[in-house]
Amino acid sequence: MQERTLGELAEHVGGQVRGDPSLVIRAAATLERAKEGDISFLMNRRYVRQLQTTKASAVIVAQAVDAPVALLVAEDPYYAFTQVMVLLHGHRTHKETGISPQASISDTAVLGAGCHVHPFATIADNVQIGERCIVYPGVYIGEGATLGDDCIIYPSVTIYERCRIGRRVIINAGSAIAVDGFGYATHEGVHHKIPQIGGVVIKDDVEIGSCCGIERGTLDDTIIGQGSKLGDLVTIGHGTKIGPHCLIVAQAGVAGSATLGHHCVVGGQAGIVGHITIGDNVTIGGRAGVINSVPDGQTMLGAPAIEADEARRAYAMLPHLPQMRQDIRELQNRLRKIAALLEGGSDKLEDR
Question: What is the mean pLDDT of residues 238-260?
Answer without folding.
Answer: 98
